Amino acid sequence: MRYLPLSPDDRAQMLARIGVDRIDALFADVPGDKLLTEPLDLPRRKGELEVERILGRMAARNVTAGSVPFFVGAGAYKHHVPASVDHLIQRSEFLTSYTPYQPEIAQGTLQYLFEFQTQVAALTGMEVANASMYDGSTGAGEAVLMAHRVTKRKKAILSGGLHPHYSDVVETLSGMASDVVVRMDADPTASEDIAALIDDETSCVVVQSPDVFGNLRDLAPIAEAAHAKGALLIAVFTEVVSLGLVTPPGEMGADIVVGEGQSIGNALNFGGPYVGLFAAKQKYVRQMPGRLCGETVDAEGKRGFVLTLSTREQHIRRDKATSNICTNSGLCCLAFTIHMTLLGQAGLTRLAKINHANAVRLADMLAGVPGVEVLNETFFNEMTLRLAKPAADVVERLAGEGVLAGVPYSRLAPKAGLDDLLLVATTEVNTDDDRAALVEGLRRALA
Q1: Does CATH place domain 65-80+343-445 in 3.40.50.1580?
Q2: Distance between CA 42 and CA 264 in Å, rounded?
Q3: Cβ atoms of 249 and 235 closer than 8 Å
Q4: What is the per-residue pLDDT for 97?
């Protein structure tokens, strides 16, 4: 049997050997509200050919982002990735088999990781960066754990503008360690007073800019308030292209900066794999998760690269490890580095300006649509609309007309009670025709 190799007797023997009486006991640590109460409504069995046909029909329902006007963002953005990126990541210098434990045969991998770290540090305005995380959300969770280690405290305050998925990851990791998480209410207008919640027990405050609603935040006053209480500021971003135009978090006093690097060099890929960026102040370098590459010289005095710090449990004793992240998103990281190198500083700035100009143009167009209110005073390439009808219904209608209008906030946070909010992102790939299609679609849907 190709897919079900174990018989009921086999399973019974395995359960008896590990000392449990039923399979459900293996999932005791999973929160009860996350478990299914009954099997999914799927056929119990089908032949291989039938399965392929069913899955093929399901896959055919997907609409590729480049085939219709596309304004979906909320943490994953459609940007143009040059064909040269896909070509260069296949070069033999980079196609090493696995983790670069042996530097003498992995100089290509080690060098691009070193260059990646340099780029991330420059982008974020920080002193050191690691060799990437899984994605932005897990990076945020690891940053909170790092802040706890640095401050010897166990309380994190999460801004209401933090992406709900990032907040969920932080809560999941913190829950396993019985740490305290204060999650502020969703705040579409960025008017929250996060400083008022910081006390002597606070380890860190986590603030996103541009936030999930698109608002640009001045992190300096929040950093000052956190530092006055001995807490750290963790700055988060989901749109790395914004760092080509806005003030870097490091210049506003952030202690740790984490975010999603997918926008540079990486396609949407149905949600992953992505690449998490992680940077911090130099004095906290030994508390950073993952690994760091460094520059050295070989026996002949030639420039070379090595793993300088490897503070994960694969390298050192588990009780000394800073995290149990098992790898980094190496190929995505390489694509990021190559695309960033092709852009350069001037190219990134120009790309960011184009994104912002497109967003301003779209906001002006949307402001003239009855039933649409643009909530943002400031934004980069993403904004929040308040609609006269439930946003999810409007998105479904426009999808049927061949326009992917954005992300209803209710999809990210179903219990927030903000069903009328629509997150809309526009990048350099959107044309005047795309923007006109969105505006006219909203006009019809809200009439």
Answers
A1: no
A2: 38
A3: yes
A4: 59
